[in-house]
Every structure is written in C-alpha cells, then in structure tokens.
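Review session, final week

We close the course with one last complete record, chosen because it touches almost every idea we covered. It is 3',5'-cyclic-AMP phosphodiesterase, a protein from Pseudomonas helleri with 271 residues. Go through it on your own first, then we will talk.
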Amino acid sequence: MPNVSTLTTLDPVLLVQLTDSHLFADADGSLLGLKTAESLQRVIDLVRAEQPVVDLLLATGDLTQDATVEAYQRFRQMTDVLAAPARWLPGNHDDLIPMAEAAVQSRLLEPVIDIGNWRITLLNSSVAGKAHGYLEDDQLQRLAQALSEAPERHHLVCLHHHPVPIGCEWMNAISLHNATAFWTVVDRFPQVRAVLWGHVHQTFDQERNGVRLLATPSTCLQFEPGSTDFKVSTQAPGYRWLRLLPDGDVQTGISRLADFTFKPDYSANNY
C-alpha cells in the first residue's frame, strides 16, 4: 500500500476532518434555514487560515443531503483549494453510486491509507434508506485485514456512525447497530490508537481501553449535546484537526467559526 505523501515514518501527520456538510445540487440549498454550501465555504476558509499544510483531508460522511452527483462535485471542487490528498466515506444521507461518479479519476474512495507511521482505515457503515449504521461482514473483514497486515503501524479507524453512546438519547436509535461486532475486531489489535466518526454534529472526546474516541462538529448545523429529543444547537460550524505523531500519540482540537449566529427555522424543512 503506497503512502499518499512523501512523509516518512518519523514525520508527524496533520489531518483535517470535515464532516456532515449536507450539500445540495442547488448551491443555495438549506437545512432549517442554514445554507450548507455557504457554511462549508466559511469552514474551508478557516482551515486555510489555520492549517497552511494539510497532509490528508478526511470527509467522514453526509457530504450531501440529496445524494446528487452535482452536490458531490460541488464538495470536491470546494475542498480542492486545500491542496491536500483527500478520502471520503459515506454516511446515511449519501449514495455510493453518485458519490463514485463524482470521485471518478481520483483516489477519494480508497479505504486504506498508509501515511507517516500510521494506517488509516475508512469503513462504510451506511444502510440504504436508514439513518442508523451497520457494518456488513465485508467491512468488518476489511478492518481486520487492514489491522492485521500492518502490525508495525499505529492505526486510526474512521466511520460515519457512532459506535458508543454519546449522551444524546434520541441518537441511540441511529447509532452503529452492531457496535459489539466492531469492537470485537478492534479489541484484538493493540495498535489501534483512535476511532473517528461524524454523524452526531457535535464534539466528543473520550477513551475506551486506551483507544481515543473522537467525533466532530458538522460544517453546517449542530445538534445540542445531551439532548433527549432532536434539538439543534446555536454553536458554530467547525472542523477537527488531528496531529498523528510517530510514537502513536494523537494531538487534536476543534476549531469553529467566529461571528456566527443562527436561529433554526424548524418550519423551513425537516432535517
């Protein structure tokens, strides 16, 4: 598996995660009154201001809301300005067929990446027509193979759906439904350092058996942490940066837009 860059195993790796952009074919498309392309553009501008060199961009699902080729093409064009290798994985609002059409003549959908002293594995937890996640046998096998074939590397595992409860009761029903099977694989491999996901539109940072568990704000609207029922937060859109160190340590942080105000219009359209 070739590296995606010229980094050596002694170099730190700077990742940027963009997630849950929910773009439409219409550039003015909005969710609950928030124009998703406009908020993504502002987040991209923030990344460019704060991260002069990005070694890899990870887009962890729900790139689009309407799963159109045009929306995926818009995401690809908008993020091209970051001048970084990129990889995508699908979320519950995505469709792999138009996604693959928009990713033509690229490596955007390659699921395993070796970079620096790390291996990053991207899994497809989406279920057609459903909001919850599930890892089919081929995805669990991909994970086990990727981990077993590179025991000398540190590993970051990425998917869309949350494999642990995050404290939002309403999101329990749309989590990864076979999380036990996922953790059964992960727990076999001590080289797994972190698991990263999207879907929850909020920050999460905990640890399980020495593995860092990370979730990230959406580039558009946010969900209220700790909410019992669906509730949109007034927090600003943002992104996560991760610095993967050669010794397996993970440094990471969240950056959000400044001067952002948003009042959700629940009558505009349903999420």
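Two points worth writing down before the exam:
The chain has one domain: 13-256.
The chain has a mean pLDDT of 95.
Good luck, everyone.
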